[in-house]
Amino acid sequence: xxxxxxxxxxxxxxxxxxxxxxxxxxxxxxxxxxxxxxxxxxxxxxxxxxxxxxxxxxxxxxxxxxxxxxxxxxxxxxxxxxxxxxxxxxxxxxxxxxxxxxxxxxxxxxxxxxxxxxxxxxxxxxxxxxxxxxxxxxxxxxxxxxxxxxxxxxxxxxxxxxxxxxxxxxxxxxxxxxxxxxxxxxxxxxxxxxxxxxxxxxxxxxxxxxxxxxxxxxxxxxxxxxxxxxxxxxxxxxxxxxxxxxxxxxxxxxxxxxxxxxxxxxxxxxxxxxxxxxxxxxxxxxxxxxxxxxxxxxxxxxxxxxxxxxxxxxxxxxxxxxxxxxxxxxxxxxxxxxxxxxxxxxxxxxxxxxxxxxxxxxxxxxxxxxxxxxxxxxxxxxxxxxxxxxxxxxxxxxxxxxxxxxxxxxxxxxxxxxxxxxxxxxxxxxxxxxxxxxxxxxxxxxxxxxxxxxxxxxxxxxxxxxxxxxxxxxxxxxxxxxxx
Length: 484
Fold this sequence. Notes:
Elements: H1 2-20, H2 25-31, H3 33-39, H4 48-68, E1 79-86, E2 104-111, H5 116-126, H6 142-148, H7 159-165, H8 170-179, H9 184-220, E3 224-227, H10 233-249, E4 261-265, E5 269-270, E6 276-279, H11 284-292, H12 294-314, E7 319-320, H13 332-349, E8 362-366, E9 373-374, E10 380-383, H14 388-426, E11 431-434, H15 440-450, E12 462-466, E13 470-471, E14 477-480
Parallel strand pairs: 3-4, 4-6, 7-8, 8-10, 11-12, 12-14
Antiparallel strand pairs: 1-2, 5-6, 9-10, 13-14
């Protein structure tokens, strides 16, 4: 009975917080510490797919939280996030979720709140994490402070508690994960045999994948077949077999795919880049609908290109581009809506740019940023909510620097390709590639340092330059670009 009263009091007190104040940014970070411990990418070093999902979702979450703290910011769009959450209480009878053998579970939720406190509570509740510690934050409500004295204050455990009970200290776990420094030589010594074994096992499937990809590309006259995520070889073969069956069963619906790129991803449609997206969880019926709608997608694509041209005219000839590697995967409809909203804002603001004064420059639109910035490759990154006057001043101030960056980009890409070819040849690599999140500057630095080493372990291997060490399921070796 006393426990029930305590729970009721705590629910009332949480409601008091919601009604009395908004969390500060520092409060929000402290309140989300259990969440950060549960999803921090450093704990997923042996699970590259899950690590990548968490890294990307954390970036989007941080952008959402940052926007909540901007004064006068009111343009919020629901943000759907997916995290892999580490299991901490495997034997707890209260835990209802089913965990994978690797000790984590996938959690998806949509944020649509407009204040920090509601957002923090939504995140913690969605991940089945306790919200009791939020009540220990400083609150400006005197009535809350008085009422809070009747409820037990959450305990901040001393280090001796973990030593005595044998429980793991989450802060110490994170520190250890970040502190342990692995060297490239020692890691290759420990993992070469495992990688070679997996690679040999995958070779027949790799040949099958190349055969299927070539045959389908030739039969459908496709420009390319790609995968958005780093799925395993067996998974990719299965997807191509599925597409092959659809070609045999319904050849007439694929008559409009000539010259296009097919991308296997998490949802079906047409991407902002004009690629045909096939959701890997969808059945043939969904894929068929996408192929049947291609003529309508092509019409929308023409309208989108016209809209990009109109924006370019309003901004002195600057080219609006979409970069798959740097921007979130958007459907054609989503991107058109973004462009249309941005165009209407520009048109109403009547900005003054000299016609064609910015020709040769490029820009991308981003919905999760608040301030404009200039990328190292020379393109402007413009928030869709950017104030037109701020936009005009920023472009004028950075135009010359942008042109210089664009020149360096061409030189850097040539240097990067040469170093990749030289490194692959020196170490007799079957393949050397990088993750999209690794910049050209990072890849160049990595390859230059690799060429100074003697690494016989790499002969015949597939080497991926990433942000962490890992052996993928098909034998690819992943090493961080800044390896030691």
